[in-house]
Amino acid sequence: MEAPGAETITWEGKNEMLLLTDRPPNYETPLKYFLLDFTPNDVFFVRWHLSGLPSAINEDTFRLRISGNVKREMALSMNDLETKFEPVSLNALCACAGNARSFFDPRVPGAQWKNGAMGNARWKGVRLRDILESAGLRENSMNVSFNGMDEPPLSSVPDFVKSLDVRHAMDGEVMIAYEMNGEKLPLLNGYPLKLVVPGWYATYWVGMLNEIVVYADTFKGYWMDKAYQVPKAVPNGNESPDSLAKKTVPINKMDIRSLFVSPESGSIVKAGVPCALQGIAFDGGDGIAKVELSLDSGHSWQECVLHQSLGKYAWRRWNYSFVPLEGTYHLEVRATGLNGETQPVHQWNRSGYMRNEIETLKLKAVH
Ligand SMILES: Nc1nc2c(c(=O)[nH]1)N[C@H]1C(S)=C(S)[C@@H](COP(=O)(O)O)O[C@H]1N2
Ligand SMILES: [Mo]
């Protein structure tokens, strides 16, 4: 397997990203950008499943269509969305379910992401609820599906369509974003519209969104029923390679995770001089209670300093300073949520999803 991140590319307003694949475009954000509260659009990770992407979209003729089990079918222009509905803003982390997949042991197939398949952004748009209310949901509605303008390269490949339960779609938090960090979305991040599903993995954040369909029954499709499945009712999507879970469910809320951002693992630091460790932590929206660091491979833990919250669906930065003695360090970091959840010491699943095993950072301190 080719090592990910071997090459850097610039394309369509993107800058200095790590290239995983070219067609479809899959680019990873270099870790150093996670020292910022918000991930700049020009280095925000890119993940597409299908290579049939439009190379340009005309904002004047673009329409978002709402159909199916509704009283009034609608075709909304960008101007309709920006002027006829109340604008809302939200800080939220968009994290690929397969982020950090390359660290699973034994290795699993799929895009070999390191930690850069995520980004924190300020999203602006309209509430999905407001759109569905104006279309008028019929009472027996069950599921709502979301489809973008990307297309399969071959008719044998299923189109990328995701769905949510109608109650989730109507919770007032799920939004249709037309801005990201104060600008229009980059084409490669789903211009002109991206579904924002706060606290849920990015597979639901359908980009280039142009079709919403309401169902009176359960939506069925490859990307809900076959792909993005995780072991049922098991914390952290855990299973064992030699006894795979028999029951699976569609992946959903993000589990709790913390990681090191700086310095990078393998760095050499100065003994006797304060070493500033920095990182981030996040969960599915219940909130981070504490982030702790261990200098002795998990025997004892010290609390890190949490930076100010950017909102419950955003990541939370943390830092910790210590004075290393000469020698080798295996540092560990773990987050605990307000809901009591914390990170596992070991974790694995066949598809490499929801990675949140406690991370180790190796440092060498020299005089
Ligand atoms: N239309 C469409 N939306 C999509 C996808 C896709 O392949 N097609 N991939 C999803 C996945 S798996 C992820 S991780 C996020 C990535 O969003 P980004 O490209 O803005 O980083 O988009 C989601 N939305
Ligand atoms: Mo993803």
Notes on the structure:
- The structure is a single chain.
- With 367 residues, the protein is mainly β.
- It folds into two domains: 8-227, Oxidoreductase, molybdopterin-binding domain (Sulfite Oxidase, Chain A, domain 2, Alpha-Beta Complex), CATH 3.90.420.10; 257-366, Immunoglobulin-like (Sandwich), CATH 2.60.40.650.
- The chain has four helices and 25 strands.
- It has a five-stranded mixed β-sheet. Strands 7, 8, 11, 12 and 13 form a five-stranded antiparallel β-sheet that branches. Strands 18-25-24-20-21 form a five-stranded mixed β-sheet, with no helix packed on it.
- β20 (288-294) and β21 (302-303) form a beta hairpin.
- It is globular.
- It starts with 7 loop residues before the first strand and ends with a strand.
- Mean pLDDT is 95; it is low at 1-6.
- The chain binds the ligand Nc1nc2c(c(=O)[nH]1)N[C@H]1C(S)=C(S)[C@@H](COP(=O)(O)O)O[C@H]1N2 and molybdenum atom.
- The site of molybdenum atom has 6 residues, from loops.
Order of helices and strands: EEEEEEHEEHEEHEEEEHEEEEEEEEEEE
- Provide the CATH architecture of the largest domain: Alpha-Beta Complex
Strand order, biggest sheet? Answer: 6-5-14-9-10
Highest CATH level, the class of the largest domain: Alpha Beta
Annotate the secondary structure layout.
Blueprint: E1 8-9, E2 17-21, E3 26-28, E4 46-47, E5 64-68, E6 74-76, H1 78-83, E7 87-95, E8 118-127, H2 128-135, E9 143-148, E10 161-165, H3 166-169, E11 175-180, E12 183-184, E13 194-196, E14 209-215, H4 222-225, E15 229-231, E16 248-250, E17 257-262, E18 267-270, E19 275-282, E20 288-294, E21 302-303, E22 305-306, E23 316-322, E24 327-337, E25 359-366
Parallel strand pairs: 5-14, 18-25
Antiparallel strand pairs: 1-2, 2-3, 3-4, 5-6, 7-8, 8-11, 9-10, 9-14, 11-12, 11-13, 15-16, 17-19, 19-23, 20-21, 20-24, 22-23, 24-25
The structure holds the ligand Nc1nc2c(c(=O)[nH]1)N[C@H]1C(S)=C(S)[C@@H](COP(=O)(O)O)O[C@H]1N2 and molybdenum atom.
